[in-house]
Design a protein that fits this description.
The longest helix is centred in the middle third of the chain and has 15 residues, at 28-42. The chain has a single domain (5-97), classed as Glutaredoxin. The radius of gyration is 13 Å and the shape is globular. It contains 3 helices and 4 strands, in the order βααβββα. The chain is of the alpha+beta class. α2 (28-42) runs parallel beside α3 (78-90).
Amino acid sequence: MRPSHHLFVCGSFRANGERQGVCHKKDSMSLLSYLQNEIQDRMLDGVEVSVTGCMNLCTKGPVMIDYPKGHFYRVPNTGALDAILDAIEGGTVAQEFLLSE
């Protein structure tokens, strides 16, 4: 079954598998772990999480994409993740963390 929200968190992985870059240096992997636990605690069905390679949005990092919704978020801390998950639960968008185009 296809998830209604697939959250892709930048892990700053490069082609050779090494983690480098801004998102990694700003602890995106800890945010990923928090996100996975929070989704489980909230029992959010239809929400999946994956870690990605570099998304080339380094100056805005850490970043996360909500697919297929197409929302690009900056995720500076766990509070941002809480706000984004609250928005997902409420069927809205966490406007304050959306990346402008």
